[in-house]
Amino acid sequence: MTTGTVKAEGRRQKAETPAGFDVAKIRADFPILAERVHGRPLVYLDSANTSQKPVSVLQAMDDYYRHANANIHRATHLLSERATALYEGARAKAARFLNAPDPHTIVLTKGTTDGINLVAQSYGRSTLKAGDEILLSWLEHHSNIVPWQMVAEQTGAAIRVVPINDRGEIEQEEYAALLSPRTKIVALGHVSNALGTINPVAAMVAQAHAQGAVVLVDGAQAAPHLAIDVQALDCDFYVLSSHKMYGPTGTGVLYGRAALLEAMPPYQGGGDMIASVTFEKTRYNQVPYKFEAGTPNIAGVVGLGAAVDYLSQIDREAALAHEDAVLGYATAQVRQIPGARIIGEARDKTGVLSFMLEGVHPHDAGTILDQQGVAVRTGQHCAQPVMDRFCIPATIRASLGIYNTREDIDALVRGLERVREVFA
Amino acid sequence: MSQLNELYQEVILDHNRRPRNFRAIEAATATQEGYNPLCGDRLTLYLTLKGDVIADVAFQGSGCAISKASASLMTEALKGKTVAQARELFDKFQAMITSDHAGPTADLGKLSVLAGVREFPARIKCASLAWHTMKAAVAHDTDAPVSTE
Asked: Which of its termini does chain A have fewer beta carbons within 10 Å around, N or C?
């Protein structure tokens, strides 16, 4: 299995779809891939935005509503026991998925954004003070920037940003230089959503720890591609979204180091997060429940558990090799298009091909591709600093899931030819 | 492909390639920023009002073909109009690009080439950015950039 620390040794260039990886069988698991759009077969190249869902995930959520729907942790009846078992079962699955030491280090959230806000407002707000620094990278998604700006505003802490090079890789020397005893929190994407860069997270965590900083890793784009081991990464927090890893929207995971979670104040108040309530004094529930106020998205969490099951029963190393092979093919094909400029050529990347076509605004390309059944994302990808870094308004982003094929890339290339015809 | 051809008509492609009135006006009586955060389209609109009449209008900025062509066509349509006529044109233009049923667009003249946008809900904001910016510029009630989000 590939761990969270993948070495930059041109893995992508060498990648070939392994003989045992049957992409047709995978595609059959995703009913939406049979959809037609604008009268054409759907070519879905927008999985970094949200992935499609296998039938097992849809079935698990449907089964939950048909056979187990009740509130969790609250009632003595059988349905509530079933619902609680499914919900806590999903937590245990998420713990195994991340190789977390204990299910109680897993907080179930609404998604990556919610997880980062929780850490910023609970851990950050209770520990940061004026003069402290929060270190981010230039690659971050807005959701790993804005929550830190908010807590910096509240506490007087300052934001520092590590620059990236022309390939879209974090400047490691600058990172080392920016780390200091003032650095209290480092917040880093594992994989860049805009460019696909895989950051050397384990090494960066070790450097941050040497300065006494706590590290949050945004794994939203890593979880669908890489095997993740939070103990090997040694990070303090790891956040992800279910919907980017073949699960439903509206749910996600926050892993936190047990001692940190224990010490952190609650994020939101409400039911289920308390041990006892009187008007004089409320005692909070134990970790992780003190961070899960209110009735959660139970069906969504059940779907998340099913998505973890789905990923667990496929050979993920083979799936990654397949995705890398398709990405390598896409990179080579797009590079041959006259006027194409690839944005983000990190030596180690996964899942994302961001590019521009000379003389064509990405938004126009997106509309013309859509008319041919090809779904891509065009725009700033919630990463405006990345766009500013490359002095571009936006990119066309084709992003991959385990179900994509070389034929999908051929359809993209044909679509781009049509774009060039319109704007010839 | 017919919807696509209707969206990217030759007039629109031409105005995208060679936008008209694509310049700054140094002595503009009103300057207004417009921004569409969805796609990063950004423009600055310059208006010179003589009394109640739009004597000159120009724009600068970057954006997709639809937003650029729409801004270019708008500047052509507005020159010499009164502020009241400009507002009336805004309403007619909005109706044309958002209405479900194709109404008569004859009185919009050349602007009617943008009617095809209504078949592309994700692109309506591109076509309307310049117009919202114009409306704010003549209202003079804000210095804040106009956003179509």
From this structure: C
